[in-house]
């Protein structure tokens, strides 16, 4: 990291890479792997909100840039909806 303002970007990259690797690994595996994937999705939800707030970006701003409603993003951040790879990529772009 070059400076403190780079922190959210580095966290976003790490989180997206980690989650994408989990999704690829779990596809076609056992029920236990599916449970682990659900846990990872919940971690993604919690981490995404924490990172967004740390970056001082509003939910409305990020949702608008993602092309979704603030309510939809809120559901993702609370774990009420599952993140897809496409949504994660849009979120990553919106966080820049």
Entry summary:
By secondary structure, the chain is mainly alpha-helical.
Q: Main β-sheet, in a few words?
A: none
CATH class: Mainly Alpha
DSSP strand tally: 0
Q: What's the pLDDT, averaged over the residues?
A: 79
Helix vs. strand class: mainly alpha
Any idea what the CATH architecture is?
Orthogonal Bundle
List keywords for this structure.
96 residues; mainly alpha; 434 Repressor (Amino-terminal Domain); 74% helix; 0% strand
Write up what this structure looks like.
This protein has helices spanning 7-26, 31-54, 59-66, 70-78, 85-94. The protein is mainly α and 96 residues long. The protein has one domain (4-94): 434 Repressor (Amino-terminal Domain). Helix 3 (59-66) crosses helix 4 (70-78). The model is unreliable at 1-5 (pLDDT under 50).
Map the helices and strands.
Layout: H1 7-26, H2 31-54, H3 59-66, H4 70-78, H5 85-94
Helix pairs in contact: 1-2, 1-5, 3-4, 3-5
